[in-house]
Amino acid sequence: MAVNSQTLNTLVTYLEMNSKPNRANLRVPDLKISLKHIEKPTISFYRYLYDSIGEDWLWYERRVMSDSDLVNIIQNKDVEVYVLSVEDSPAGLGELDRRLSSDIKLAHFGLLPEFIGRGLGHYFLGWLIEQAWSYIPQRVWLHTCDLDHPNALPLYQKAGFIPYKRETETFKNPCAAGLFPNWVDPRPG
User: Fold this and answer.
1) Residue 110: pLDDT band by 50, 70, 90 thresholds?
2) Rounded CA separation 177/52 (Å)
3) In what order do the strands lie in the sheet with 103-111?
4) pLDDT in tens, 32-79
5) Pairing label, strands 33-38, 162-172
6) Is residue 112 within 8 Å of 124, Cβ to Cβ?
7) Which of 91, 107, 134, 171 is geometrically suited to a Cys-Cys bond with 97, CB 3.0 to 4.6 A?
8) CB distance 16 to 140 below 8 Å
């Protein structure tokens, strides 16, 4: 699809997990890693992670959101922001949203580009799933799309998420507004 077109289409896949998986075999990467719950993340730190992680995958929704709207989400007591660090450098972002009923949404999950392909995604996702299930929800769910990393959907399915709905969404192209000047569509063709 042309990057300069006014709209983009994407195939969105919704996935859910209705019972806690067995994570006995979750392998910790052979790296100096830490995971931290950032209770009241600053806007600048959150935007740094969100923008850096989402640059290649066209994460635009929170990029265009006002600071006040964003702070109302990320500093809500029922939204948990986690940062994965490798040797004290931020490497990944995970966000659990517990604001809606008894379901928990994995609202955001990703790694900074230099940490992709090092075995961290599988571990971090497994850890976030464990954290989500510690609240004993009815289900944990997320959505991804064909603009995401090509391994995202297989990773979610390998972790135990099952697709329950797919739909095509059309949205205003943020590239046309100059938000992603170097973006390259990851989809084949």
Assistant:
1) very high
2) 18
3) 33-38, 79-86, 89-97, 103-111, 139-145, 7-17, 162-172
4) 999 999 999 999 999 999 999 999 999 999 999 999 999 999 999 999
5) unpaired
6) no
7) 107
8) yes
